[in-house]
Amino acid sequence: MAALLYFLNIVAPVSAQTPVIPYFWDPQFRLEKPETPALRSVQFITDDEYPPFGFIAPDGTLAGFNVELARAICDELKVACTVQARRWDTIVESIEKGQGVMAIASLAITPAMRKRVDFTSPYYRTPARFVVRKSPQNPPATPEAMAGQTIGVPEKTAHEAFLRAYFKGADIKVFPNTQDLLRALRGGEIQNAFGDGATMAIWLNGLEANGCCAFRGGPFTESRYFGEGVGIAVKKDNNNLRRAIDYALMRVAERGLYADLYLKYFPVGFY
Question: In what order do the strands lie in the sheet with 80-85?
Answer without folding.
Answer: 80-85, 41-46, 102-108, 230-234, 118-119
